[in-house]
Amino acid sequence: MTIRVLIADDHKLFRQGLMSLMRTRDDLVEVVAEAETGQEAIRLVELYRPDIVLMDIFMPQGDGLSATKEICSRFTGTAVVMLTSSENEEHLFEAMRLGASGYLLKSLDADELFDLLTRVIQGEVAMTRTMASRLLKGLATGRHEMDGEKEKLTEREADVLRLVAKGSSNPQIAAELCITVNTVKTHLKNILSKLQLDNRTQVAAYVAKAGMPGDKNKYHPTG
Length: 223
Known about the structure:
By secondary structure, the chain is of the alpha/beta class. Helix content is 51%, strand content 13%. The protein folds into 2 domains: 3-127, Rossmann fold (3-Layer(aba) Sandwich); 143-217, Winged helix-like DNA-binding domain superfamily/Winged helix DNA-binding domain (Arc Repressor Mutant, subunit A, Orthogonal Bundle). The longest helix has 15 residues, at 181-195.
């Protein structure tokens, strides 16, 4: 299966370089369009319906975060992966909250980029170790709190939540907890419902921003 990619970045030289890189793996990736503004990215997603948008943050006429919000809400079949030079944690948290399927730095190694794009298609989150560690730091410190109480999770759902937040795939979670993949899917479905989230990417963002339910005595398992 060829991954259909749209590149959204206002720097023409960077877009050209990335397109040249993609051509070296035309067995895996096809660049279907390129955009230089956030609004153009939205229009081209509607036209081409790519599998993945590689989205810069700093762009004119609708920045990458605004475009990500609209694309994720309107085009559920398209995943948005931030590809940016920004290491700002607020950008990271906001992108994940808006539904981005990953957050990558432009200094990323080419082979790792292709590997992570493949993982996105498989439903995983594309994130370098550096960015993942920052999400986990948010989990560990619990310094980002969400407003309001959510429906309480069971202890097993909390276990699954922690592993999802760490970027573990469903098979990895199943092996870690000695349960079946179908059971993992059931727990994840319940977690999404209880936390009022849409996907596992938002789960990771929720934990990074709010900490685990139960931090600071907010969480009381129901069994």
